[in-house]
Specification:
Low-confidence stretches: none
Shape: globular
Largest sheet: 7 strands, mixed
CATH topology of the largest domain: Rossmann fold
Number of domains: 2
Number of helices: 13
Mean pLDDT: 91
Number of strands: 16
Order of helices and strands: HEHEEHEHEEHEHEHEHEHHEHHHEEEEE
Strand order of the largest sheet: 8-7-9-10-11-15-16
Structural class: alpha/beta
CATH superfamily of the largest domain: Response regulator
CATH architecture of the largest domain: 3-Layer(aba) Sandwich
Amino acid sequence: MKKFLIVLLVLMLIISLAACKKAEQKPAEVDILKIGAITSLSGALQDYGECFQRGFLLGLEYMTKGTNIVAGRTLDIIWEDTTNSPDIAKERTLKLLERDKVGMVVGYASSGDAVACLPLFEEFKTICIMEPAAADALITKQNWNEYMFRTGRTSGQDALAMVSVLKKSHPDGKATIACFAPDTTYGYSMVDPFVVAAKAAGFTITQTEYAPQDATDFSPYFLRVKRTAPNYLYVAWAGANDPWNQMLELDLPGVGITILGGGHDLPRLRSMIPLGQIGGKGYCIYYPTVPQNEPLNDWLVKRHNEVYGFDPDLFTSGGFAAAVALCTTLDKTGGKTDADLLIKTMEGMEFNSPTGKRYFRVQDHQAMQDLYEVELTWVPGADHCIPKFLSVIGMDTITPPITNGR
């Protein structure tokens, strides 16, 4: 009997130790943080949306060393497609906020989609990091709200960058400029702030020409410009149809008109080969070889080629910057997504990007950032025009006015 009791006690001890060990090995409950990611994954801006998506995912990989964990929380990214329709964008943003109960949202390729969704972020008191929608209207008094932070640049920053390039040759502003753009919201959003900035610097605007987005014959517009013979023609064109060849066919450079261009995403650079062949002037937001000595860009270019087999594009860089801003914020808040805490943390916050340091301006949450002066070149055999770095256009040079009344 005594032996039996000893054996029984030993067995009970073994079972107890095994149970303790099993309890110790029980995996900790995973703390999930849902993040909504919404952009144009189909429709007219599909290229922009897909570039943003690739950049955002690579940015998360870089910031979390491949773990997808920030401040102890595992990020669950829920993707939605706006289809480039404001109504659908609003419906799917509501789904993210109401049904999925995401902690934060990133995205919007289209400014129209973003404007339609602004009231939802106020209603649900949820922060949105916006990239790459660029319309100035998103930070004006009638549209701005405290829940929006934009990592990308605005049309106004683009305009100031182009004017700063011109001022290098004409510090006194003594030059004449014509503008050409599509007759669309995009066209006006690019030309209107440029005209204001150029006039403020002393330049004379001779005319603004707007062609239908689907036009194929641009000769009436360019012939009017040729007759006026300004010193410069500023072109802000986005579309599959190509106005660049007709500018050269009508020999605008032959009458002393220098063509200016800005941007530029890869589809646009493909259409701009004629401008590269004559050496156009302009500014650049991002091109893989333009940022100088930026470790994040070096990593992005290398890793993007490893994963996808080609270089990153403008909006890939933007998606990467949005991911860095998101992770930087969550690191600072310990993973908390309370809107008041996030706003307090993000206002004035610095974060890195493939083009260098940026920060969110306190007054309107617009990211201040550097752009680049470039020469547009072309190498025989290349399938697109290549921006060649000339100089950094410092963020202090291209600070847009505060227009939200704060």
